[in-house]
Structures are given as structure tokens and as C-alpha cells.
Amino acid sequence: MRRATKIKVSVGVLAVVGIVATALVPSPSSYGGGAFAFRFDLAFSTLYAVFYFSAALIFFLGLKDFTPQLRRAYTFVAAGITLLAASWIQVVVLGALNLLSNLVLAVVAVGLSYILAGVLIYVGARQFSQLLHISSRIQSPFLVITIAIVAAILSTQLPHVHGSLDEATLASLNAVSSWIGTFLLASALLALKVKQKIGPLYTRAMAWLVLGMLFGVLEISSTIVYYISGLDSRPVVNNIILYGLIDAAITAAGFCYVASALAFIKTKEEL
Fold this sequence. Notes:
By secondary structure, the protein is an all-alpha fold.
């Protein structure tokens, strides 16, 4: 059995075991959305945590097979994916402890990880594009940072329905989400250009990477809509479609990152 196949089986088994194990965790009475929301969040967060951490680990394990330039680009992408996984796990933990409305904890524990994750993934995608001598305005950090800042500021002024979050927390959530959404979209556009120019051996791996980033943008957009619509103050069962879309998008992004990392490993095995 090849290494890529072994890793694929291991990730699948770990995901199933993790989801089953969540059924044994008692639901805290302090969780805002109730027992159903806690089970729903915990099951999905376990699934995408397995995917994200596995993807990052696979990328890191494969670093030795690449040139120093590619190794540096992969390191940034893998580090960003790791921080994303850590951020979403922190969201569930803070929610279970009824601390998500604590602005300091939410911004410091989750927000900073989110912000740095977006930057790291963008840096990795930018280095990919530079290796192939791709010319694009999106390669300008100044331009992307400016757009991210403007988007973050504008997002705090979005009209919204009052939900479970206070004004300051909602504004912070929108700002951080807009920031990382901008960086993920810029990264996806750069990765798409890389896919179009890179050799056929790496096309599939880059396609999965682009999809992962785009699913991340979808999740972020859905999250902003969810909170500015005030749906977070209603029972989860009444908003299961949008609520499920958010978790499904995060999970799909993690799956795509795993598929991308495995595709790179399989490429090396087939050379």
C-alpha cells in the first residue's frame, strides 16, 4: 500500500472515530444554541479539525520531497491551514463555555489566529505564483492589505438585525471575517493562475487547493449573513440550511486541502 493510500485510510478512520466520540461528550447547559446546536457544532468541528490538521500534517510530511523554494511556499500554506483549524476549534470551546461574547477572548484567541492564517496562506500562494514568474496585481501585498482593511471597515457598518451578539462583538466578527475572506479570495485567484501555468503533474493538486480556498470564502460569506440577519438568536433547527451550509463549507474546504496535499504526495510517488 502506497503512502498516500495509507494516509487517506488513516484520515477517514480518524474522522469516523472522532465523530462517534462526540456523542459521548455531555452537552453543557451554558451553550447558547442548546443541546442540538452543541452536538451539531461539535460533530462538524471534529470533522473539519481532522481534515485541516491532517492536511497541514500531510503538507509538512511532504516538504522534504520539494525544492527549497516550493518547500517555503508549502510551509506558509500549511501553517495558515493549521491556524484556521485551531481558530474554529477555539470557537466551539468558547461557545461551550459561554465565553464567545467576551470581546477580548474572541478577538485575541480567535481573531488573531484568523488574521494571521489569512496572511500566511496568501504569502504561500504568492510565492507559488512568483516561482512560475506570474505577473498579477494580486501579488501586491499593499493592494491586498488595503482592500482587506477597507472591506473590514465597511463590514462593521452593514445593516443588521440584533441577535445574540452585542454590537462590538458583531463588528469585530465581521471585520475579521472580511479580512481573512479578502486574503483567501486573493490566494485562490493566485492559485488559479498557478494551476493554469503549472505542469500537468501538479494540476489536480492545485485545483483542489483552489477549491479549498473558495469554500473558505463561501463559509466566511455565509457566516456574515448568518449573524447580520440575527439568525444566531433563533433555534438552530429553524435555520438548519444556512447553519449547515456554514459547517459544510468549512468541512468541504478541509477535505479539499487534504485532497490537495495527497495529490502532491501521489505526484511524487508516480515520478
